[in-house]
Structure formats: C-alpha cells, structure tokens
Amino acid sequence: MARYTDEELKEKVHAGFIVEYPDEMTQGYKDALIVQLLVQADTELVSAPAYFGAAKDAPSTNTMVSATAIIQDELAHANIAYRLLEDLGMDKEQLVYGRQPHEFKHPYGFDHPLENWAELVVANGLYDRAGITLLGDVYKNTSYGPLKRALVKVDQEETFHLRHGEMWMKRLSGAGGEAREKIQRAVDWMFPMAVEWFGLPDDMKRHSGQLDYKLKGLTNDQLRQTWMKSTVPLCESIGIDVPAHWDEAQGEFVLDFPFPCQYDEDEKRWLFGEGQISWKQVFERWKGRGPANKQFVESIQEGRAFRGVLEAAA
Asked: What is the rounded distance in angstroms from the CA atom of residue 12 to the CA atom of residue 3?
C-alpha cells in the first residue's frame, strides 16, 4: 500500500520531496513515470540505427570514430532508462526484444533514414538539441531521485553530440555549394519535425500527470520555445533558412508555416501549401509510424537471435 494519497504526494513533491523507492509512489505517479522513461529509452535506442546508416558516410576515419562514439552513447543512455524501468517492475528484455516495431514510443522523426553526413550532423544539431531541452528540464525539475542522478552523465554526453552537430553544420554551410545545399535540405525537413516532437500545444494538452507529479517542470509550448531560442539563431548565423522568426510584439518565436501540417515521407518534404491539419491526423501519422520503423527496430532485435546462436554453440 502506498504511503501517501495522490494529492499528498503531489503536494510533497512540489514542496521539494524526492521520491527514491517504489513504495513511496502512488499508482498514478508510477504510471506517469513509466510512460516518461519508456519514451526516453525508446528514443535513445531507435536513434542508433538511424545514426548508424549515415555514419557510414563519414568523411574521414576520425569523423567515423566520433559518429560511432555518439551511437554508443545513445545505446548506453537507452540502457540507463530501461534499467530504471526494471526498478519499477518492467522486464528490460521484453521491452527491447519482445515488442513489435510499432509499439516503440520514440518520436516519428527517428523512423526516417538519415541518408548522408549532412543529415546526420543536422540530426545532432536539431534532434539532440531537442533531447537536451527535454532531458535538461527533467534533470532540473524531476522529483524522481534515481533519474535525476542518471541524467548527470546523459546530459554531458548529449552536449557533446550537440556540439558535434553544430560544429559540422557551421563547417558545411561555410563550405558553400553542394555541402551547404545538403544542410539546407536537411534543416527543411528536420526543423518542423523537431517542432512537432514537443507535442500538442498547451491549450490542447491532454492531462499527463507529469507536471502534477513534478516529473518535469515546463509545458510543451515552453519547451518548444526553449528549443527555438537556440536553434533559430544557430541556423540564421550560418546562413541557413528556417521557417520561424522572433516576434517582438509577442515576445516569442513564431512559426512561419501552418502548424501542424501534412508531411510527405517519401519526398521528405512538408506540404506547407496544403494548410493546417488537425492533431488527430498527426496522431494517426505517428501511430502508423515512419518508413524505416520496422527496419530499424528489427535491426536492433536481430542481436538477440545472434546471441541465441552463440549460446547454442557454447
């Protein structure tokens, strides 16, 4: 039996109480924490095959090593989150190997193949920035002690991924020509993808409990603004166009495209001209998963079959 009622626990965590053990949680707190950790773990895990495909396009041995180190970090971060889920009674083997590809909870953007080095570094510059924005807020505000401590390492390594992406975005943009054009094309499809990643606008937000239980501190719109405050100036400083601008009157960044809108995943192109769509349509697109969902998840799960072969031969 939980030590506190839901209302007592919400009051305690907002007063600074840190939850350390399952018997200090209510069922509502535990359910909200599991959802949050599962999205975190799946996102880190499924980013690895997406990054690996483009890492093979690395322009030198040194850059291949850097890209491979990032992939290794992402897998380690996934393992941390799955390990925390084990403390909550979840089976890590089942979570990684026992689910169908469409059951994973990562952002839609990571179901798309990254096809060259430019797309990989833009993913580091935009997607890893989104990850830091989300996890940085969790680290600062979470009421769950084991996660707060684990995120010290994760945050440091994600910062390296981000710097890698920003450095290469600047370098390729500065080179001009085809290199710059590739960066622009990657930003064109990944920028709206990352904006969408933060989810429903606050005035439409479903009640998740994560703010009530202080599992995070900022709303979706606040997190989206935090991400744009660093991403838009970065792109503008290197001569890359983004569909957003700072609005003095509103005191915030404003999108220059209908949000949300339709996406052509075959062409990797947002259909701004077709106008705004409903969030119900967005959820249907997310639920259907992206074009590489099955391939990426199966590439991860193949490891278990190989391990079985090794164990049988031992």
From this structure: 12
Q: Cis link prior to 101 (omega < 30° from 0)?
A: no
On whether the CB atoms of residues 193 and 255 are closer than 8 A, the answer is no
What is the chain's pLDDT, residue by residue, as a tens digit (314 residues)?
A: 668 899 999 999 999 999 999 999 999 999 999 999 999 999 999 999 999 989 989 999 999 999 999 999 999 999 999 999 999 999 999 999 999 999 999 999 999 999 999 999 999 999 999 999 999 999 999 999 999 999 999 998 999 999 999 999 999 999 999 999 999 999 999 999 999 999 999 988 766 689 999 999 999 999 999 999 999 999 999 999 999 999 999 999 999 999 999 999 999 999 999 999 999 999 999 999 999 999 999 999 987 776 766 677 76
Q: Judge residue 161's burial from the number of C-beta atoms within 10 Å of its C-beta, 0-12 exposed, 13-18 middle, 19 or more buried.
A: buried
Q: What are phi and psi of 267, to 5 degrees?
A: -95, -5
At 247, the amino acid letter reads D
Rounded-to-10 torsion of CA 127, 132, 133, 137: 150
Q: How far is CA 231 from the centre of its chain?
A: 15
Which residues, other chains included, contact 68 with Cβ-Cβ below 8 Å and sequence gap of 6+?
Answer: 55
The helix or strand, by DSSP H or E, that contains position 179, with its residue range, turns out to be helix 177-197
Which backbone phi and psi does 56 adopt, to 5 degrees?
-70, -10
Nearest to 112 by CA among 7, 194, 226: 194
Q: How far apart are CA 198 and CA 223, in angstroms?
A: 7
* Amino acid (one-letter) located at 55: A
> Is this structure's pTM higher than 0.90?
yes
Angle between helices 220-237 and 145-175 (to 10 degrees): 30
β-bridge mates for residue 276, sequence order: 261
> Is there a contact between 50 and 113 (Cβ–Cβ < 8 Å)?
yes
**Cα–Cα distance measured from residue 108 to residue 115, given in angstroms and rounded to the nearest whole number:** 16
Residue 295, C-beta contacts closer than 8 angstroms, at least 6 positions apart:
49
